[in-house]
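To whoever is on call:

I kicked off a structure prediction for a single chain this morning and the downstream step that reads the tokens threw a length-mismatch warning. I double-checked the sequence; it's 297 residues and nothing unusual in it as far as I can see. Pasting both halves so you can look.
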Amino acid sequence: MRGGFSTGTGRSRIAAIVAVVVLAAIVGVLAVFALQSTRGGAPAGETMSPAPTFTFGDRTSPNASPTQTSAPATAAADERFLAIEGDTMWRATAGQCGGAAPVVEMSTDAGSTWRNLTPADARQVLGLSTFDGNGEVIAATGDTCEPTALRTYTAGVAWESYPDVLAGSTYASPADPASIIVSGSPVAAPCAEPRSVRTSRGVVGTVCNNTAYAYLDNTWSELTTDAIALDAVSGAVVVAHTSPDCLTGVTVTRYTGTEPTPEGCIPDAAPTTPAALSVLGPDTVLWTADALLRPTP
């Protein structure tokens, strides 16, 4: 046949040429993608942006329980003391040697009215108690702030010094704030400035940096955090402290050794103000702000 190639042969050649063209196009496309990949995936002339971040808003549950504010550490001059015995009550603000004057008061009507009976020579109150309605104050006295045990049997008309009482007393040392005097001997406190130093039957309690401690077997043992005041009675330490069990006030817990026994909630107590706690038998009273408050079961 003239004409150069047969019809079958021509079709085969055309198909081959088309396949080559298609293959070349595919290779070209792949090459472009590969080039863009090695350049970080951004087209020429564009700057890569960081991956976006997202804010999902406040994830706090709208029904979350309220939290309490921990009490700030009480300044030395603002420390409080309270001693109750029926309708007779004694209370004091500590004051400080070289600073604010202390105030010692007595009430014979369960706290409805008070009389200022501060000993004239007192510069700082270190301890306070009552017996048969009479008052006993451990105070730093005179220009040297010498610790002295003072008692009155005349409702504050006269105060007398009792060295033998001082020898058996427990109080924070005015000369060395990091020491607690226990029956005449210094004991290193668990912090630099202990507050609410109380004792009963050889057990000593204190609040240090808002943590309550008990001195047991010559060792300080932590009782609870967020403490605002404590008292020692019948060989136990009773602590007023904040806790989830009493969100609108403070919880009262008795510690025998380090074993806790809840004693109720004081719902209206302000945990951010200086306070003093006094326990006598079944009666527990917290002096905070201008109120005398008792726990509810």
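Update from on-call: the warning came from a stale cache, not from the record. Cleared it. Sanity check on the structure: The longest helix spans residues 7-38.
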